[in-house]
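Hi R.,

As promised on Friday, here is the backbone we talked about, encoded as structure tokens. Could you run it through your design pipeline when you get a chance and send me back a sequence?
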């Protein structure tokens, strides 16, 4: 598989075949120059030194000078052109891997390690580039020198040639053993390098968590262990290499011994001239040099083969979610969503994440999704934009099975705000316009105002042109979420998915965002995964999830009166709120200072709220279980937020 991957990697030279052919031609001329040089040396010895002819010495010297100049020019061209071709091939290969990673489904990225993928895009591609640009041409050049030198040796003295060539099979046996031994080792080296990069990537991404928990020493030890494993694998490779090449040099010296011993007797006997012996020994050096080069190439081939195999594992990875043959464009949608007996299981899991889920959402409805942890709330919303494909049943948008339309036409009509906000390095303007880069400044500011982000953006040093760090460094969690909401709203989608998207904002900001978004949600189908009553109570329908199943659906009042699990969730959150309120009252009565985030005047995230509006109530506040176990609402009239 590694060898086939190496051969396949050569296909990336096809766009640069003229440059590669010129590099190969230059290499052949360099090899020819090397093969001609010993003949001038023979002329200088036999005609000049032994024969006493100065003209022979002058002719040989001039010839060697021309050969050296000729060889120097084409050595430069070979090196430059081969590097140019290999860099182009590596450029295309990196682009191919990156493009593939963009198209691979969520299930692939759920299992892949970021550090391993980074290693394949960088280090492994570089190993393949060395093979494509240098190793392959050196292999061809070494073979030319090997065949050319052996041919000339046979022409000069076939008996002496046969004696000296007896060492070649032994050398190739050593190389074969070396290649079979080190190739698995090189694959382990690249895997250990990927593991090291994974530790590094995780540490840099979570550096604030590391420092917050004072775990610097733990992370240093974790990196050190990964580094030790990489060092161990590299030493194993070095040991194998160090053991192999002394044996090869030994056989080379044996060849020289045989030439001097047998060839010296031939010179004494008068059947071989001194110049021919010197030339013969030079050609033997030319014969052994490509053999040594082949040894180095064998190591590079083993390393490049392991890397090429890792690279093509990514390029050949099967995509679980892709456009099916004949998939059509999804026309502008109204927003009717239907789950028809949908079942889904994550790759590698033994249990369903969703089982036989069925419901319909009409255009313009707000659907709230509540349930216990791990009940399948986020999984349900992930199936609407077809991040995963269902294993049973189907999901339809306006009657179209999501598998029968192109991914781009589907996802371009769905706005998504995830609980885990992801922002990219760049300006605030670029992050808001990420899904619609052609948006005008007026459009960007409009959605920023709706998301309650406009004011804090203007407070930044360069306003909308302020550059933010990787992952939104420099912004608070609430600010990042508001930018993410603006980014989704800019698409003006008919279908909106909000995965607890206001969890990181304070109570007053959440209220302002929801007031603005209520106007937007009036003509679009909205799915909301939320924990707060301010969203759930006003939803047109609430889906109650438990154990991967949809166990009930209805309005807040309907579920409160008719479903025990929903009542338990309401009661649980009500108790948590009551305990917090009672503790705050007790601490105030005792005259004790309140911890940050507790007491009146602060929202649920510890953010001081000076708004005259009451803070959003926890899910089910104003309701309590009666002695008979049923639940009744104690709210006779809506509060000031319309709940």
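Update: got your reply. Pasting your designed sequence below so it's all in one thread:
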């Amino acid at each position: 598989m590694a060898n086939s991957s190496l051969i396949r990697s050569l296909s990336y030279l096809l766009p640069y075949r003229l440059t590669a052919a010129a590099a190969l031609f230059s290499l052949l001329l360099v090899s020819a120059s090397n093969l001609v040089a010993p003949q001038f040396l023979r002329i200088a010895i036999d005609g000049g030194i032994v024969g006493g002819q100065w003209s022979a010495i002058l002719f040989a010297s001039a010839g060697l000078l021309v050969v050296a100049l000729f060889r120097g020019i084409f050595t430069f061209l070979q090196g430059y052109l081969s590097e140019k071709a290999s860099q182009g091939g590596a450029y295309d290969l990196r682009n191919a891997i990156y493009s593939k990673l963009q198209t691979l489904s969520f299930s692939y990225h759920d299992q892949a390690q970021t550090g391993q993928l980074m290693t394949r895009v960088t280090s492994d591609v570089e190993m393949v580039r060395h093979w494509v640009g240098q190793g392959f041409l050196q292999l061809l050049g070494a073979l030319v020198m090997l065949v050319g030198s052996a041919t000339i040796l046979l022409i000069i003295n076939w008996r002496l040639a046969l004696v000296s060539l007896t060492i070649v099979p032994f050398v190739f046996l050593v190389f074969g053993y070396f290649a079979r031994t080190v190739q698995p080792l090189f694959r382990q080296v690249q895997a250990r390098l990927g593991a090291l990069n994974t530790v590094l990537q995780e540490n840099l991404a979570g550096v604030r968590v590391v420092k917050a928990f004072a775990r610097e020493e733990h992370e240093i030890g974790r990196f050190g262990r990964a580094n030790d494993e990489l060092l161990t694998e590299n030493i194993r490779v070095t040991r194998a290499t160090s053991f192999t090449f002394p044996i090869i040099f030994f056989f080379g010296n044996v060849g020289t011994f045989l030439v001097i011993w047998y060839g010296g007797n031939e010179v004494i006997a008068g059947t071989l001239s001194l110049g021919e012996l010197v030339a013969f020994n030079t050609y033997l050096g030319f014969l052994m040099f490509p053999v040594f080069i082949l040894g180095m190439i064998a190591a590079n081939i083993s390393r490049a083969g392991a890397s090429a195999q890792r690279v093509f594992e990514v390029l050949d990875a099967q995509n679980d979610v892709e456009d099916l043959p004949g998939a059509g464009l999804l026309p502008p949608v109204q927003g009717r969503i239907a789950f028809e007996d949908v079942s889904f299981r994550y790759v590698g899991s033994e249990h369903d994440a969703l089982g036989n889920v069925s419901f319909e959402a009409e255009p313009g409805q707000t659907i709230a999704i509540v349930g216990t942890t791990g009940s399948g709330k986020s999984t349900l919303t992930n199936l609407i934009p077809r991040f995963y494909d269902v294993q049973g049943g189907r999901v339809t948008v306006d009657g179209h099975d999501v598998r029968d339309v192109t991914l781009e036409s589907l996802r371009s009509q769905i706005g998504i705000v995830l609980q885990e906000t992801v922002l990219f390095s760049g300006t605030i303007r670029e992050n808001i316009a990420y899904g619609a880069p052609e948006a005008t400044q007026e459009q960007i500011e409009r959605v920023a105002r709706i998301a309650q982000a406009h004011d804090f953006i203007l407070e930044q040093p360069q306003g909308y042109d302020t550059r933010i760090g990787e992952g939104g460094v420099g912004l608070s969690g609430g600010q990042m979420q508001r930018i993410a909401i603006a980014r989704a709203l800019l698409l003006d989608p008919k279908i909106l998915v909000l995965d607890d998207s206001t969890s990181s904002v304070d109570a007053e900001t959440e209220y302002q965002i929801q007031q603005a978004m209520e106007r937007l949600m009036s003509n679009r189908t909205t799915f909301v995964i939320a924990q707060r009553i301010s969203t759930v109570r006003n939803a047109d329908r609430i889906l109650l999830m438990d154990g991967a199943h949809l166990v009930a659906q209805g309005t807040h009042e309907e579920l409160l009166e008719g479903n025990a699990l929903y009542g338990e969730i309401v009661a649980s959150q009500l108790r948590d709120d009551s305990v917090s309120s009672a503790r705050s009252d007790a601490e105030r009565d005792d005259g004790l200072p309140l911890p940050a985030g507790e007491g009146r005047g602060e929202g649920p995230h510890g953010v001081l709220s000076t708004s005259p509006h009451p803070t959003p109530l926890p899910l089910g506040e104003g309701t309590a279980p009666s002695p008979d176990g049923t639940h009744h609402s104690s709210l006779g009239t809506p509060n000031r937020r319309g709940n």
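One thing I noticed while checking it: The radius of gyration is 37 Å.

Thanks again,
M.
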